[in-house]
# Entry
Amino acid sequence: MKKVKVGVIGASGFVGAELIGILLTHPNVQLTGLSSVNHIGEPLSSVFPAFTGAYDQIFSDNETVIEQSDLLFLCLPHGKSEALVKQCMDKSKKVIDIGADFRLKDLTAYEAWYDVKVDYPELREAAVYGLPELNREDIKKTQLVANPGCYPTSILLGLYPAIAKQLVDPSNLIIDSKSGVTGAGKSLSEATHFAFKNEGFNAYKVGSHRHTPEIEEMIQVMGGGQIQCSFVPHLLPVNRGILSTLYVDIKEGVTAEEIYTAYRTFYEKEPFVTVLEKGKLPDISHVSHSNQCHIGLAVDSRTKRLIIVSVIDNMQKGAAGQAVQNFNLMIGIDETKGLSMVAPSF
# Structure
């Protein structure tokens, strides 16, 4: 297959660097351009020295990268992608937006939670939510993919079989998630300063995190009804990884064996999701630097709750890796291409 001309907009952030690292070894990618508002004219290695001698592309402006590319990855903060996506689609370019601008179909919810105004609502209707395990066939046919958020990826993959098979009642769903500090992005803040974060562990944005409406909307799409969940994210003193623990009520009459069987059957052919054996629970170190999601299950018979533990690498399955998985689907090749990395947990 002929290589696809690919550009990365917003390439000087953590996700951009992770994405470039994957794309450089992808056999179907010709990396044609990188953009950065703050580093135009500088080489990639001036921001990320690890690329020295391997790929010293010069950062250029957005318009140049768009013109040079047939498919664009956008790694931008919320509110910054919409106008650029409009420009790309008007030029018949395919787009994978790794930011939040197109994840929610509910415009009112998006504008309220993200404090931005939507100028092109028709683009949102055209976007496909890029969770391959849910929307694989639609991703193959679309021009615009909205890459899911990192927290929602871990949470939705953990819940999907139980909701789709109507084994649980998610109306009282409680979500406890922990993330490495790269999830906060590259911008400096006191919350992620080494002196404060090292040896520390804290909750933040309790009940107000912007990924909440995305989680709730997609649970409804999965068949769980219109719910409101309690979502509490935390910052771990580690670079990468997300561990989400989900507490959900089991429906009357549903057995533990039914739940385990449903999960194993549901994900048995999924290349990037593994349901662990009964009695085992996952660890973020076991999926580090990979596009894998590991899921562990426990049934609390006393409280009649299913406890799901789901782990991903927030920079891979939670961002850049999943974006490349979507890229593979969009251009019609094996979705695992370029994503075969496995890192030992030491």
Summary: Residues 316-331 form the longest helix (16 residues).
